[in-house]
Amino acid sequence: METVRPCGCKGIRSCLICEAKYKISKPDLKEVLQESKCYVYCPYCDKSSPGWDIDEYKKHPHHDGNLIDYPGVYIKLNFLNEDEANKLMEALDYLPWQTSQSGRRKQNFGPKCNFKKRKLRLGVFDGFPKTTQFVQSKFEEIPLLHGFRTVEQCSLEYDPERGASIDPHIDDCWIWGERIVTVNILGDSVLTMTPYRGPITRYNLDCVSNYNSILEKGIRDNTQIDIDDNVVVRLPMPARSLMILYGPARYQWEHSVLRQDITSRRVCLAYRELTPPYLENGGHHEEASEILSIKIQCTIIFNKYQHLLKQFV
Question: Which residues, 6 or more positions from 192, have their beta carbon under 8 angstroms from its beta carbon?
Fold first, then answer.
């Protein structure tokens, strides 16, 4: 169905609500992926062990089977403490949620991007909520995020009653930079990684070869990960954790969130930076200069909610 449905889904995207109403049949991606060689990434030892059940990583250091390397992933467990996570959730729930596709809701703070035409404009973006400012400040504690300048912050809610999920994809490579950052606030979940086998023009992947990395030498590795194509890697996303995808995991693998891995309400914050051409000394820096000049301390665009938010600042 190409029309936008009341639930927010459109095209091939669907949730439990529209699947029941419009009798939409959706293939079970989990069943397909489990036919591959499956591994679970362990954030403690930076290795992946055979298995599908995400609790495999909790066996550390007593993993079963032969471990493999899976470069391009950084996970910081307990990035947020319980008090920070609780206050953050209260603050986010005071803001309006917008219906999104595949059973999700969102709150977007960032510029307008046309990925097909490769056009960037400010739109209504007027800064980030003050109540989330401390999260970006905490990025300074992570060496891999040195120099990270947030240009988009998106709150995402996954509802198990709607069968929330997100299909395999690579975040756009024309405008979104080398580090894909997610702060998982509420609800344990899993990011499922599958090798990308499509054309280089999809996701604007052809842009990557046109700019130099801003990451330290050796961090970004554009060589192929030495595992065969029939492999699935499962990355744990516990509540209050931070995840960064970069290098091979960023550009050579699609990531998804399976419906079966949403067992309770999940809320996360997704952060994006610009690609090097849109940063200082880049050929397109002038196009992004107005966006980059907006300070985090800007007044939140939802002015009518400010009196409620002061208690969380």
Answer: 33, 168, 232, 233, 234, 235, 255, 256, 257, 258, 261
